[in-house]
Amino acid sequence: MKGKILYLITLVFVLESCSKIYIKQEQNFTHLNLKDVSSNQKVNAELINYKLKVTEETEKTIAFSAAVLKKEGDETTLGNFVCDALMFAAKKEFANIKPDAVLINRGGLRVNLPAGNIKIINVFELMPFENELVLVKITGQKLLDGIALVIEKKHPFFGLFIKADNQKLLEAKINGENIEPQKLYTIITSDYLASGGDSFVFFKTPITTEKSNLKIRDAIINYCIYLSENKKQIIPYTDGRLQISK
User: Fold this and answer.
1) Is the model's pLDDT at 23 over the cut of 70?
2) Own/partner long-range contacts of 109-113 (Cβ < 8 Å, ≥24 apart)
3) What 3-state DSSP class applies to 208?
4) pLDDT at 2 over 80
5) Phi then psi dihedrals of residue 162, to 5 deg
6) What are phi and psi of 231, to 5 degrees?
7) HSE on the CB side for 62, CA within 13 Å?
8) 3-state DSSP of 158-171
9) Domains of the chain and any CATH numbers
10) Mean of the per-residue pLDDT values for the chain?
11) Would you say 193 and 209 are in contact if contact means Cβ atoms under 8 Å apart?
């Protein structure tokens, strides 16, 4: 009985202590009228100045394309161009590792790139996401498992050759050789896909993952600048790396 009384006293003390801590006695709110803010000339001037700087930067021409880079079709000129850009970037970011292939998702490329001058704003519209470049090492079996998704969604890639009859895989090669289930391959992709995003589950639990601090968008911009500085135009192309008969 004495134990129960002591327990009740302790419980009451705790409840009273908690009530003193958590009971809200008063709460006051203030309202900031956005119209008052917009009338502030100093704020307006700073916003206008910032907008001008952003516009000046994003309107810079960084490359020239001989034709529209399109995301429509089975094998796409836009997909091939972006994969070229990522392989170019990967050779710098992962200097001690030789990538076997590049694989990205078709849905991540939001718009076509125009013919003629390509500006920074065009690349932001193409790749508005903050995804970063990564390298994953997976088995040939996992890569083969993922090829079904590539055929279904027509995802862009580099370094592979895929031949299919409708959805049935007929041939799959990497760097000109048949993909071996037990062999390890290094694939360049985005951190979003490497985590299994957009149904790329075959990338999950890789043998190893090498990260970079380079955004996919910046890799494309850097490649465009490289081409421009070396007096090279973007020449849209397809080379038969994805063949799907219907």
Assistant:
1) no
2) 109/71, 109/78, 109/79, 109/82, 109/156, 111/71, 112/68, 112/69, 112/70, 112/71, 112/78, 113/65, 113/68, 113/69, 113/78, 113/81, 113/234
3) strand
4) no
5) -130, 130
6) 60, 35
7) 21
8) ECEEEEEECCEEEE
9) 55-237 (3.90.780.10)
10) 87
11) no
